[in-house]
Design a protein that fits this description.
Elements (H helix, E strand, L loop, with lengths): L1 H18 L8 H16 L3 H14 L4 H13 L6 H12 L3 H12 L5 H13 L3 H14 L5 H13 L2 H16 L1
Helix pairs in contact: 1-3, 2-4, 3-4, 4-5, 5-6, 6-7, 7-8, 9-10
Length: 182
């Protein structure tokens, strides 16, 4: 069974390389299918072999969507600090304005824990989609993990002040001032 998984990943990587699938052809369902494959690799205890296969493929084909995703998710699964493959993947899709895929990928990273890059990018994604409430919710999560971020804290304070939530606004203004000073 484990050889089947390795063979399947190898076939997917080769198919992607030879067909040169366009970025526009990738949907969230493609990533959900890859998640199933990754879960099977984890269940069969072949995730290291699959990651190595993808990393080797990335040496020759640095923008392989499949290899970046599989390698990135397995790295997150291992709780490795290096999330560069997922960052590169998100940047590829955000540069091409595929916001629904960017949102999915950011949420996928966040399913492993809070991440400044994913939160910043997700807020930007919601900004492009004009989803202000969702963006503000992400900002509230972001300021809990990014202690250097002062501007967003000030924006949240202004929003809370307009909403009439003075106590929360004052708290945010205090945080913003403290962050600007430091």
């Amino acid at each position: 069974m484990s050889e089947e998984i390795e063979k399947k990943v190898s076939e997917l990587l080769n198919e992607e390389k030879w067909t040169r699938a366009t970025l526009n052809s990738y949907t969230i369902n493609n990533f959900i299918d890859l998640d199933e494959l990754i879960q099977n690799a984890v269940d069969q205890d072949v995730k290291n072999q699959i990651k190595d296969l993808c990393d080797e493929h990335l040496v020759h084909t640095k923008n392989s969507i499949i290899a970046l995703y599989i390698s990135g998710i397995i790295a997150l699964n291992r709780q490795v600090i290096d999330d560069s493959n997922m960052v590169q993947l998100i940047n590829i899709f955000s540069d091409n304005h595929k916001w629904n895929v960017v949102e999915f990928l950011c949420n996928r990273i966040l399913s492993f824990g809070e991440n400044k890059f994913a939160l910043h990018t997700l807020a930007s994604c919601y900004d492009h989609e004009n989803e202000e409430e969702k963006k503000h919710g992400i900002w509230e999560r972001l300021i809990k993990v990014d202690h250097d971020e002062a501007d967003i804290v000030r924006f949240l304070a202004e929003i809370k002040e307009k909403e009439g939530d003075i106590d929360t606004a004052v708290e945010y203004y205090k945080r913003a001032i403290h962050r600007y000073i430091n």
